[in-house]
Amino acid sequence: MDTLNLDEQSRxxxxxxxxxSAESGVPTFRxxxxxxxxxxxxxxxxxxxxxxxxxxxxxFYSLRREAAARVRPNxxxxxxxxLEQRLGERFLLATQNVDGLHARAGSRRMLxxxxxxxxxxxxxxxxxxxxxxxxxxxxxxxxxxxQGAIRPHIxxxxxxxxxxxxxxxxxxxxxxxxxxxxxxxxxxxLVYPAAGMVDAARDVGGATxxxxxxxxxxxxxxxxxxxxxxxxxxxxxxxxx
Length: 241
Ligand code: BJW
Ligand code: ZN
Hints:
Layout: E1 11-16, H1 19-22, E2 35-36, E3 39-40, H2 41-44, H3 47-52, H4 54-70, H5 75-87, E4 91-95, H6 101-105, E5 110-112, E6 115-122, E7 129-130, E8 150-154, H7 163-176, E9 180-185, H8 197-203, E10 207-212, H9 217-220, E11 225-228, H10 231-239
Parallel strand pairs: 1-4, 1-9, 4-5, 9-10, 10-11
Antiparallel strand pairs: 2-3, 6-7, 6-8
The protein binds ligand BJW and zinc ion.
């Protein structure tokens, strides 16, 4: 296995995807063939899907809230939290996962760039709040202040990511320059802008690593190092102790 050498100058940016939570028992997106109960994921994870059938969308996210509450972080999440302990502000985690498992493992220098499963917000007021409730039966939740529809605090297809998240990632990459070590872990590299981070890392002269159980050739071709396998096994070995 290629070894990851970190020195006092190294700055580590990690992008994680659904594969990191697979060993905890959370299904990946493309692992479900992009389908959920016969619906295309784009239709239950999009603003148009929510307009068309809020109850269906809330059923999808309610089931996922229940499933995420039952699982636990795995050794991959723990290895990342331990690396953060070692590196302090020379570490940043950008996760596409909404399941909250990184935070439960102890990660703090973390941006949940696709939102958070255990938060909701009013479509009109827009202020996110903690919410672990499930909504299976009508009436669907409404805002007490303005009667707007309450929706999951998730970045759906066609919606923009929080600009401050992208700015923090860009600033980290710029500040690190050639000392940057970028790791993408358990992500198919199909969804943008996250899938473009590797190119930004390469552009400043950073080293790029992909850790994935079944990387696609197209995405893998954009990395210097590709480690094929389970993140729960590879990450603890890669970071040592
Ligand atoms: C293991 C493992 C183990 C398994 N160990 N590994 C540029 C070009 C083309 C299109 C676009 C573009 N820029 C923007 C777009 C549009 C769109 C997009 O990217 N579309 C593509 C599909 C082409 N992007 C957007 O709409 C984004 N918004 C945006 O850019 O706004 C501006 C804009 C809009 C429109 C046009 C242009 C600009 C928003 C994207 C939001 C994504 N949201 C979702 C769903 C909501 C979250 C939720 O409900 O949970 O987020 S999509 C879904 O995919 C989810 C995930 O976070 C995301 C990424 O998936 P991930 O994590 O990579 O999972 P998988 O399943 O794909 O892969 C798992 C991997 O793990 C696999 O590789 C396995 O091998 C591996 N694995 N077990 C290690 N044990
Ligand atoms: Zn409101």
